[in-house]
Specification:
By secondary structure, this protein is of the alpha+beta class. It is built from 13 helices and 6 strands. Helix content is 67%, strand content 9%.
């Protein structure tokens, strides 16, 4: 009986030494909410992240003016949805170790007591079996292959989410700039409409104008004031959307000079991209296509694993039996007999899953092609519209000069001059609206093509900032 007891004691000691200890990390909602409200664009941690992501430290900190590229990096740092997909990528990466783990051997001890042993014979019988499993047909390699593909797909999902966040931010920035320009333009229009109305009302009081001349001007002023109020509301809404796209509270934007849209160089490059070039680049670089391909590789690995599971694993090892004073040694070889099934069901599921993954690859490519073609068509249409509105604005500005000349010559009055100025302001506002639509179309083209992102923006660890979690600790071992 001494040998089995010693083996059992050794096994228990080894198991205790190998146990890991992970301290608890309870979440405190009040702390996480407070930490979110404390986020700011002058954070030292953000400064370090921007330095790592861009390869150089900002010339000034805090930044006096933000461009869209730097603001997009801030969104990649702060946005909580990116932390979720990064955390999922960490889970998928950890699954690789799980897939590569080899099955543990088992030790079984079965003592028995004989109630009526022969005289002088030990009443004890003890069987000790050591069972060592051996996987066959490369199952472990197939599991690792599947986990690798899953981790690759999860990494691509981070890129997909990063571009979604970047597009959402760029859209919000363009909308904020457009609403701000419209509000300011409407301030000027309202002032001109008020002056024009006051002038015509004065003439009406003197009997030089009829009521029919005043009514349209009053309606135009009412409409301009209504449009200005709506534009002011859109400014506040767009500002909130910029903050949400950044992953910071709206108060974090106080005192921040935001960009007006895409950088001039980026906009010019996007204007010159041909549809065929954009389509080819997107099909090669879009993360959702690469993600679909990685998922297909994972489905293929799953099928190979299920095919390997047709073949039974082996279990072998020595055995020892203490039989009423007799020491008996033996050897055990065991395997499952594939008689009732040969894993047909899981194999069929894996075949169907592979076909589904292949269909998703084709669907992803089709989606990319459709998105590129729609984005470039919208860009070309908005570019033509913008050119038309610029020409109309130039014509209305020229008309202001003509009317001013006529006023000086005595061929027109002040009412005509103010009316020409109102028309010019409205044309400028329409042209600005067309420019904003073109800027949004360029944002859509950029997002449809995607492209590489700084590795630091994708690999940032998802450890919450100080104060987000009540307590945290790294995994350790018991001593």
């Amino acid at each position: 009986m001494r040998l089995p007891a010693a083996i059992l004691l050794l096994l228990a000691a080894l198991a205790a030494a190998a146990c890991q200890h992970v301290p608890p990390a309870p979440l405190m909602p009040a702390r996480t909410a407070a930490a979110y409200q404390a986020r700011a664009l002058d954070s030292p941690d953000l400064h370090a992240f921007l330095t790592a992501a861009s390869g150089h430290a900002p010339a000034e900190w805090p930044l006096p003016v933000w461009d869209l590229r730097t603001l997009a990096l801030a969104a990649l740092y702060f946005h909580p949805d990116l932390d979720v997909v990064r955390a999922h990528a960490d889970v998928a990466a950890a699954a690789i170790a799980t897939a590569g783990a080899r099955p543990n051997p088992t030790l079984s001890i079965a003592p028995q007591l004989v109630a009526n042993p022969e005289s002088g014979v030990s009443p004890w019988l003890t069987t000790v079996n050591f069972d060592w499993p051996i996987e066959t047909a490369g199952k472990r390699a197939r599991r690792i292959e599947h986990a690798d593909a899953g981790a690759a797909a999860a990494r691509e999902a981070v890129v997909v989410e990063a571009w979604r966040v970047r597009r959402e931010l760029a859209t919000a920035v363009v909308a904020l700039a457009a609403a701000t320009r419209e509000r300011d333009a409407l301030d000027d229009e309202v002032a001109l409409d008020e002056r024009l109305l006051a002038l015509v009302e004065g003439r009406q009081r003197e009997g030089a104008a009829a009521a029919n001349d005043v009514t349209p001007l009053r309606l135009a002023l009412l409409q301009a004031r209504s449009d200005r109020a709506a534009a002011a509301a859109r400014v506040g809404d767009a500002r909130a959307h910029v903050a949400a796209a950044l992953g910071v509270p709206a108060a974090a934007l106080d005192g921040i000079r935001l960009p007006q849209g895409l950088d001039a160089d980026d906009a010019q490059a996007l204007l010159g991209v041909a549809t065929a070039d954009a389509r080819r680049r997107a099909l090669l670089e879009r993360a959702d296509v690469r993600q679909a391909l990685a998922e297909y590789v994972a489905a293929e690995a799953t099928l190979r694993l299920e095919l390997a599971r047709q073949y039974p694993d082996l279990r072998l090892g020595p055995s020892y039996e203490f039989d009423q004073g007799l020491n008996k040694w033996g050897f055990v070889l065991a395997l499952d007999l594939p008689i009732m099934n040969r894993n047909e069901g899981p194999i069929g599921e894996a075949v169907a899953a592979r076909a589904e993954a292949a269909a998703k690859v084709v669907a992803a490519q089709a989606h990319v092609i459709a998105e590129i073609e729609a984005a470039t068509a919208r860009r070309d249409g908005e570019r033509a519209r913008s050119a038309t509105m610029r020409a109309l604005t130039a014509e209305r500005d020229a008309n202001v000069g003509r009317v001013a000349t006529a006023v000086r010559a005595g061929a027109a009055d002040r009412v005509a001059e103010l009316g020409a100025e109102v028309e010019s302001r409205r044309a400028r506002r329409s042209a600005a609206e067309a420019e904003s639509a073109l800027a949004q179309a360029l944002v859509d083209v950029e997002a449809a093509m995607e492209g590489p992102l700084p590795p630091a923006a994708l690999d940032r660890k998802t450890i919450p900032p100080s104060g987000d979690v009540a307590s945290a600790g790294a995994p350790g071992r018991n001593r």
